[in-house]
Amino acid sequence: MAIENGSAFLLKIGNGAAPPVFTTVAGLRTTQLSVNGEAVNVTTKDSGGWRALLSGAGVRSVSVSAAGIFTGSAAETRLRGHALAGAIDDYELSFESGERMRGRFLVTRLDYAGDYNGERQYTLNLESSGAVVSL
Fold this sequence. Notes:
Blueprint: E1 10-14, E2 22-24, E3 28-37, E4 60-69, H1 74-85, E5 88-94, E6 100-114, E7 120-128, E8 133-134
Antiparallel strand pairs: 1-2, 1-5, 3-4, 4-7, 5-6, 6-7, 6-8
């Protein structure tokens, strides 16, 4: 597996159409993806003292965290609108290898910060709602 460039890990937001057209959320400097799974324990006295988990059961989710410099792009404005409205929309994560992941996400946190003589920065968190697929 080749080493991939972090700047090629992009977060994109859909335009609300069906099928959606995705636009890169500009100004991101860091992006992180977490795939989470909740185990369902089916251990019985017949498990020989070892824990047994049920494959394919439980709740799975994907969390995305990102931080960057605010540029005022249309994608950032759309994202802020979703955060204020509590709206779920289509998002895509793309990687340098060409792999992509798509799903519907809710903006669960959007923070803005800035120094007096510096640029305005933001951080955001997204949580999946429904299946996230690898393309």
